[in-house]
Design goal:
This protein is mostly beta strands and 78 residues long. Helices cover 0% and strands 49% of the residues. A hairpin with a 2-residue loop joins strand 3 and strand 4.
Length: 78
């Protein structure tokens, strides 16, 4: 997620109690593990978008489907 200002080794504070909104960076559970993506809404569909333009957006059935939590803070690794 370098395009979103999150580098390898950074520590994330993730909130699990709130329903994420479009534009937020979220931790999502996919078949092969966890991923970090931006939550987006296009029309009536929800998507997980990578910060890198080379990766395709992933559709979600519902906004809460597979969302572990929303990133609230990034603690930079030095």
């Amino acid at each position: 997620m370098l395009g979103a200002g999150i580098a390898s080794g950074d520590l994330l504070v993730v909130e699990r109690t709130s329903l994420p909104q479009a534009g937020q960076i979220v931790v999502a559970l996919l078949a092969d593990g966890f991923t970090l993506k931006r939550l987006a809404r296009r029309g009536d569909r929800w998507w997980l978008e990578a910060a890198h333009p080379g990766y395709p957006a992933l559709p979600l059935a519902h906004r809460s489907d597979r969302i572990f939590g929303a990133v609230r803070h990034v603690i930079r690794h030095l």
